[in-house]
Amino acid sequence: MPEVERTTGLKKSTIYLLIKQSQFPSPISLGGRASGWLLSEINQWKAERIAISRGQ
Question: Which domain of life is it from (predicted)?
Answer without folding.
Answer: Bacteria
